[in-house]
Amino acid sequence: MAKYNVLFVLGGPGAGKGTQCDLIVKNYDYKHLSAGDLLREERQRAGSQYGEEIEGHIRAGTIVPVEITCSLLQRAMEDSGKKNFLIDGFPRNKDNLDGWNKAMDDVATVRRVLFFDCREDVCVDRCLNRGKTSGRSDDNMESLKKRIHTYNNSTMPIIDHYKALDLVSHLHAEKTPDEVFDDVKKVLDELKL
Ligand code: UP5
Ligand code: MG
User: Fold this and answer.
1) Ligand 1 within 6 A of 18 CB?
2) Which of 10, 45, 69, 94 is spaced 20 to 30 A from 154 at the CA atom?
3) Which domain holds residue 39?
């Protein structure tokens, strides 16, 4: 069987990863999998043995062990019947990267990393604004500070790792969603998946 094509979608909290993935799936044949959304669903699932552990990490802005996240991603990929995936918000640290490589090396190829680069104050404003209605337990200033700390310390090195492999498309994410998407389209049109 041909390997899955994967684009990792990375960037700080509120950088617009989910927003851009929504625009991509309307225009291209990709399946969008948000690792954060899959974890939030698993947290809500009756009988999940991981609910409390996941909630603890989300509130604290720390990273759920890769065995949990990667198995949710793997199952969602298999169930989708699709070939091209946007994996949003993963891998966030070295543990995630190592776990992914171990589990997925034979079945998926990382074709590109879309890096949505957005100033911290803009990210904070967006998340606090969304927090008025999102119901997300981490859209508050206390959790946000921790999310940003984790992003700078643990996720940036992963982006740098893929930069060294020449796989990163750097996108300026402070513009309007449509303007950012114009830049995304150029990347995807060139990739031709
Ligand atoms: N918005 C978006 N784009 C805009 C633009 N261009 N101009 C103006 N406004 C814009 O957008 C955020 C808000 O900004 C929205 O209101 C939107 O309308 C507006 P969104 O597209 O949702 O941004 P996104 O980057 O997806 O932000 P999100 O908050 O989802 O990012 P995080 O990375 O913080 O959250 P995620 O859900 O990925 O992870 C949450 C937690 O889960 C993590 O902190 C961690 O604890 C855990 N997690 C893991 O442990 N492992 C994983 O692999 C994944 C998550
Ligand atoms: Mg998101």
Assistant:
1) yes
2) 45
3) 4-181
